[in-house]
Design a protein that fits this description.
Elements: H1 2-15, H2 19-26, H3 48-68, H4 79-89, H5 91-112
Length: 115
């Protein structure tokens, strides 16, 4: 329901609501909900709906795994997946460091590529 609410809200706003209501949900104060008719100008827009529904599906899947396949937690990971598990444990650090590193690399390439 949370996943579909984004699409239903966009349709309802365009079909039935007045311009004031559409403008209200498209404004920065409420566009984080995801019930918008026009995507904001940003690269990191992650609305609450529909992603709340995606998170709920993940929680439900993990609950089923814990109930039906709890022995999977005792298994060791294959070697190629261990590095991914390490990144998952340190995801905030990786997220915070990757942008300055990439920007530094791009700045270095731009500096060396100058005519």
């Amino acid at each position: 329901m949370a996943i579909a609410s984004k699409f239903a809200a966009s349709y309802a706003l365009l079909a039935w609501a007045g311009a004031d209501v559409v403008h209200l949900f498209n404004a920065p104060g409420l566009n984080w909900l995801g019930w918008i008719t026009q995507k904001p100008v940003t690269e990191d827009y992650v609305p609450l709906f529909p992603w709340l529904g995606v998170m709920w599906w993940g929680v439900a899947a993990w609950t089923c795994v814990l109930r039906e396949r709890a022995h999977w937690l005792a298994l060791s990971l294959p070697a190629p997946l261990r590095s991914m598990a390490w990144l998952g444990r340190w995801s905030l650090s990786y997220y915070m460091l990757h942008q300055p590193v990439l920007l530094g690399l791009l700045a270095g390439v731009a500096w060396f590529a100058r005519p």
